[in-house]
Amino acid sequence: MKDSSIYYSVGALLYTAANDTNILDDIILEKFNIPFSLAFSFDTTSNDAEADKAENILIKTLDKLFVVKKDRNFYIPKLFIKVLSTSHITHLYKKFGSLLDLITGFILPDFSVSNADVYIYEMQRINSVLSTPVYILPELDCMALLDLRNRYNHLYAIKEKLSSYEDYILNILVSTGNILNMLCVRHKVDENIYQSGPVAKLLSDIVTTFSSDYIISAPAFEYYAGIGWQEGLVKEIELDKLHGFIGKTIVHPKQILVLNDAYKVPSIDYDDALNVLDDKKIYQTCPNVNNTRINEPKIHYNWAMEIILLAQYFGVKKY
């Protein structure tokens, strides 16, 4: 498992268009519940000219953010850029220059066996010259993993390629949009993605393959308004956590508060984690602090470490 808090700190990952001219004011005025992360995407650009224009707007956004931060104290989320292709990485480095110091990482779409080596090579080149590391968030497209005859070999081949760059892999993202579209599935607000058998099995296979070495962020929940959306999101987050995901792609700022509250560590878990990690008790199996369950360090050590790291980012709630 990852033993540094930074890998657990992506949390609520909100996407916005790279040419969004309003997001800067939203950050400066702290309009969003914190903490959260922000990803700039070029998905809405349809050609090179539009992408170039969006890049120029993003440069102005980052430049102004850098200037304003010198005079004002406000929360800056972790910032990510979702690249368009493997070649886009070097292009952004040449065009953005030192402004990339503000960027925590690049999101690498459609990450697969066929492009993994190029993606990693390009990132190695960039990180060899930058003053601060830029992490990567490989995004797995579930459509490429749909073929059951090749799924396991494909997943483990990806894992093997990532192993050479493991410390720079902040999170692994999972995109389910294409597979849901192919299946003609769109769940209701009181339903969740795990009720779709083919998708649930695929998500389980991804977690089984990668979770021992990487943090995996859960796919998005599309509802953010109307009756029952908060309850639906909370239920899906609880299932995300039970399946081994940490954090989640967010489709609207209103979802950030719900996710942050859901990921706050219950005080009983925090106390139990401290108990499990206590050097004096490390080999003792004993009832927990309120005598409701057994703490067994050999079994619960990784869980306890994760609880402490999550508490550092999301906080602890009393109950």
From TrEMBL:
It comes from the Bacteria. It holds the Pfam family C-C_Bond_Lyase. InterPro entries: C-C_Bond_Lyase-like (IPR039480). This is ATP/GTP-binding protein.
